[in-house]
Amino acid sequence: MNPTNKITVYRKLEGQSVGFYILLVVLAIMVAMGLLAAWTMEHEGHWISGMNNQVVWGMPHIFAIFLILAASGVLNVASVSTVFGQEVYKPLGRLSGLLAITLLVGGLMVLVLDLGRPDRLIIAMTHYNFKSIFAWNIVLYNGFMAVVFIYLWFMMEKRMQPYYPIAGRIAFIWRLILTTGTGSIFGFLLAREPYGTAVMAPMFIAMSLMFGKAMFLLILMSSYRGSQRMLNHAVVMRLKNLLAMFIITALYFLTVYFITFAYFTEQHGVVRFFLLDGGHYTTLFWLGQIGLGAALPLFILYHPRLGEQFSMIAVASVSVVIGGMIQLYVLIIGGQAYPLDMFPEMEILASSFHDGVVANYAPSHWEFMLGLAGLAMSLLMTVLAMRIFDVLPECVTEEVPAL
After folding, report:
1. Residues β-bridged to residue 230
2. What average pLDDT does range 240-260 have in this prediction?
3. Are 186 and 299 in contact (CB under 8 A)?
4. Which of 101, 120, 227, 284 could pair covalently with 288 via S-S, beta carbons 3.0-4.6 A apart?
5. Could you give the CA distance from residue 301 to residue 315 in angstroms, rounded to a whole number?
6. Which pLDDT does position 402 carry in this prediction?
7. Is the pLDDT of residue 3 over 50?
8. Degrees to nearest 5, angle at CA 275 with 270 and 280
9. 393 forms bridges with which residues in the sheet?
10. Helix 133-156 to helix 59-74 angle, to the nearest 10 degrees?
């Protein structure tokens, strides 16, 4: 049977079970604790966080950037259907678009509340300095949300179906630009040696595809399990194969990143710092980013028996999510902790500004509370949207040929 000939029936979450309400309460409490953390840091000052003059982007930024990257990557499922004609993914397009919006909102919430003066955001949104990549990112984030909202509307409204492919192509291009902009925040930052390379943009695109696919698989499988719906084995196998390929792609660009730094003699210190003698950053890189975030999920996904089980695919996806958070921690926190070379080719005889010293950073519980609140906000909005709108297909049972 041609998959395009099958009528897809969507149904809201019933939301009548005790577990559903417990989930809502837990997520709401996490959001409230995050707001408390933001209020406390605003009134007491950022000295209560682990951030300092050397490490100005802390744990909340790790959560925020992860959610923003995942928001871009999770739209891949809808894009594969609309742009590349893989119709088997079309029933999942609504969930893909919804997650792109909710994950982005959660990430931006963390980013705004961590500014210290969120009331000043209106100035950043009305006075643009287009020589700054941060100003461009405000346009890209707002634009992405608007484009995906229209894409989702066209997807769900029968009268707008003729324009649905056009909206999908625009959303696909916009998310590539958005992720390029996020990676360019670090790629254009020449003052920090571990940043300042053009490979950041494609590396962030690969990371977004990996994070987004893992998040999509987790939410898809938990939603179907929680609502007792039928999820086709072949569709999950396709998605997990894509996840494995995105992990390999991210590893490839990570290799290119280190080869780029290894090519230039004056930047050998960066490579040694991350790979050999960077203390806990090196440990996190090998055990967390490579071991937990790549080796373990690849072993599970390509194992002939484990890779066929939904539960083990969920384990691999969780491993990718945790490994991805560690990857961002190593890159962003480690990149700031790496000794700042204020006077290149000059010898510093004495200094009280920590020249040549690895900066200290220990995230506080306030930062974790705020970061987790962003994730909780994304999940809360997703669950409520599934309860209100017809987002989830009644079943995804179409048998499809292997990729």
Report:
1. 395
2. 96
3. no
4. 284
5. 10
6. 41
7. no
8. 100
9. 10
10. 40
